[in-house]
Amino acid sequence: MSDPASDRAQPRPATIAVTAGRPPHEPDAPLNHPITMASTYVATGDVEYGRYGNPVWSAFEETLGALEGGRALAFASGMAAVTTVLDLVGNDGSVVAPRHAYSGTVMALADLESRGRLRGTLVDIADTAAVVQAMRDDEDCALLWIESPTNPALELADIPALAAAAKELGIRVVVDNTFATPLLQQPLALGADIVVHSATKYLAGHSDVQLGAVVVTDDEVYGAVKGRRDLVGAVPGPFETWLALRGMRTLHVRLDRAQSNAAELARRLAEHPAVEEVRYPGFGAIVAPVLRGGGPAADLLSAGVRLWVHATSLGGVESTLERRRRWKAEAATIPDGLVRLSVGIEDVDDLWADLAQALEGTAPAG
Length: 366
Ligand SMILES: *Cc1c(COP(=O)(O)O)cnc(C)c1O
Hints:
With about 375 residues, this protein is of the alpha/beta class. It has two domains: about 10-250, 3-Layer(aba) Sandwich (Aspartate Aminotransferase, domain 2); about 250-360, Aspartate Aminotransferase, domain 1, CATH 3.90.1150.10. The protein is built from 13 helices and twelve strands. The strands form two sheets. The chain has a seven-stranded mixed sheet with strand order 1-7-6-5-4-2-3, with helices on both faces. Bound molecules: pyridoxal-5'-phosphate. Pyridoxal-5'-phosphate binds near residues 77, 102 and 179.
């Protein structure tokens, strides 16, 4: 039996999502932080200037920090968060990263490498022994970048094992937790030092805002990340942050429905004759069928859906899909016929009916 007193002391994630970061309960206080539009503040306080802080950022950061078990910092986009963390690596340091990480992350690494700023080694993040070997082989390795599940291959990394090995080698560990969200995976508790998010996706959840975040446990790392944000200025707008916080209030409910829809669609897709393979890690709301007809079939599917939207990005209440290899930046090792489905919260039978009718049109002629 659980102890009701300790239950009160330790709110569960759904309660945190709804209640964290709210103004104090005082007569006439608003339940939610209003959007504070301010570039400057009266001097001698904690904020001083719009690039250094905003009450809505603080509310967003408190909420995400409580969910992840660390201290959060909001950024203008996921990539602003990603590049800020990469910038913590010193000159000539190196980064071990998944070859199937988000394409923007792989491109950012390539860009830094091409300018002689640092080196990147791309690995199969699901192959724990190979990742550990890559870290051991490179004495300049300063950062292990983990994404799990990966976008869009949906490979899983053994975060505790990799974090333990990295710690022994003095290598900092970052996890891009965009796909799992803190409700399904809490990397800091698994041994990671830093979490990054594209809050554009599940955290905000309505395909209407661009936002990112970094979450850390160590005060020194917090200071370094905050210092980079202050200097580089990749700061989010108050309205965008407010939208993302508003989205986070329903994260658990949205994710619940999206995940059960995804699991059901993965089952049905696996039995469809046009589908060669279904990638689904068993949790989360991204499903990636690989079509027997390859790229052309994937394009026909994208063009043939009516309820699903052919669009990039993911994590919204709306179901979207795309053939990932339509992007030149996507890794060549991603199958041409892989379609990334971002499963939303619509009725699952409607979603299936639309997919099934569009799949009918993908069979090669004859
Ligand atoms: C979208 C995405 C990013 C980049 O985030 P933006 O908000 O688009 O800048 C980073 N990592 C993953 C896993 C993503 O899906």
